[in-house]
């Protein structure tokens, strides 16, 4: 697979088994790549990377999976290598190390990770919010809105004060703030079941779920 230009000339050689679009924010693209019109995810010999519209490699073509974007998170890609996952910037810089069995969709600049059967919470700058020692983690990010007045006008914002991280550790449920401060310990199981039973019944989360838009050999179409 390759790409022809408007004049019928080959601009991307037919060296690839698949070519996918990236989905960077427009302003991010202009800032990071001011002289590049298009960036593509490509697949070659079962490995993924990115190239520009002149076939220059940006992210080396050595990864087993690469998403088109990180929904709700930093500009970049979920990336897979040797069965582990992380997040990488459009220029190939590591944001979340590629060492986790699972990296969740970010919410309010934090994300759940899993490693060796244990869960933790990281910021989208790889700052530890909660260590990877928890038995279960739920990000309860409030979708309720509050009105904020700036004097002459008002706007609606997420009500962050109602958001929390719900954590199971050593048989005990606790609530934490989004920056990792303990809000309430020994939360009754009845309360947990009333509010989160539908989440507790889900299968173990995986980056291979369609929500992550991971592209891999024989995977998602462009």
UniProtKB/TrEMBL annotation:
Protein name according to UniProt: WG repeat-containing protein
Pfam family for this entry, one: WG_beta_rep
Region described as Disordered: 203-222
Organism: bioreactor metagenome
Taxon lineage: unclassified sequences, metagenomes, ecological metagenomes
Biased composition (Basic and acidic residues): 203-213
């Amino acid at each position: 697979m390759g790409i022809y230009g408007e004049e019928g000339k080959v601009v991307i050689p037919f060296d690839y088994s698949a070519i996918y679009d990236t989905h960077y924010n427009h302003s991010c693209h202009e800032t990071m790549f001011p002289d590049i019109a298009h960036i593509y995810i490509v697949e070659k010999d079962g490995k993924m990377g990115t190239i520009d519209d002149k076939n220059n490699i940006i992210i080396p073509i050595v990864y087993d999976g690469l998403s088109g974007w990180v929904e709700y998170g930093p500009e970049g890609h979920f990336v897979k290598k040797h069965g582990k996952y992380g997040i990488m910037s459009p220029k190939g810089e590591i944001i979340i190390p590629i060492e986790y069995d699972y990296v969740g969709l970010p919410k309010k600049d934090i994300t759940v990770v899993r490693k060796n059967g244990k869960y933790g919470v990281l910021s989208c700058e790889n700052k530890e919010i909660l260590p990877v020692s928890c038995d279960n983690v739920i990000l309860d990010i409030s979708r309720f809105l509050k009105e904020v007045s700036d004097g002459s006008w008002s706007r609606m914002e997420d009500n962050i004060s109602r958001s929390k991280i719900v954590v199971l550790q050593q048989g005990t449920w606790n609530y934490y703030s989004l920056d990792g401060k303990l809000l309430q310990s020994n939360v009754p199981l009845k309360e947990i079941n009333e509010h989160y039973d539908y989440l507790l019944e889900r299968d173990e989360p995986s980056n291979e779920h369609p929500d992550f838009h991971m592209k891999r050999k024989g995977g998602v179409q462009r």
